[in-house]
Amino acid sequence: MKIEMLIDREAAERSGADAVTRLTEAATRATFYRDNLTEAQIASNRRIVAISAPTCLAAASNAHQHFVAAFVDGAFAGYVIATVHAPDNRELDWMMVHPDFHGTPVSAALMEAGIDWLGAKRPLWLNVIRHNERAIRFYRKFGFEVDADAVTDHVIPHAIMRRAPR
């Protein structure tokens, strides 16, 4: 499997708004949903899909953000957005991988791209839906651990995961 990684403007141009929306829809359907979601939680998931393309485009041209898109054999496989809010407030902000590429090296390649840009020697954080155990296990492989004291106000319960500097 050959993974092609594109960044910022080139990534935005190659992936395209419609493809970002379709990929985000597929990724959220596979990982954000479960049987007992409320209407408000379903609406929250739909909002993520609706804002995904403009969020990626904005990140691609923001000096404090980094947008990376992964392609496998020409197929848009996933993306990550990394955000520097402040010198020691660095977030892996968005990570979406099409379900066809779950369990492949795509996710790891995107994580490494985000961590490298943010600075592996800096404290990093991300948020994850609490019921997404697969994602939590994946993030732990990269040194992230759930911060039991962190609280979020998401409609769907999220956990904050932090990674100490290395």
UniProtKB/TrEMBL annotation:
UniProt keyword list: Acyltransferase, Transferase
Acyltransferase keyword on record: yes
Domain of life: Bacteria
Entry-linked InterPro entries: Acyl_CoA_acyltransferase, GNAT_dom, YpeA/RimI_acetyltransf
Domain N-acetyltransferase per the UniProt entry, residue ranges: 18-166
UniProt GO molecular function: acyltransferase activity, transferring groups other than amino-acyl groups
Keyword Cell division among record annotations: no
Pfam families reported in the protein's UniProt record: Acetyltransf_1
PANTHER family hit by this protein: ACETYLTRANSFERASE (PTHR43420), N-ACETYLTRANSFERASE DOMAIN-CONTAINING PROTEIN (PTHR43420:SF47)
Name of the protein in question: N-acetyltransferase domain-containing protein
Originating species: Allosphingosinicella humi
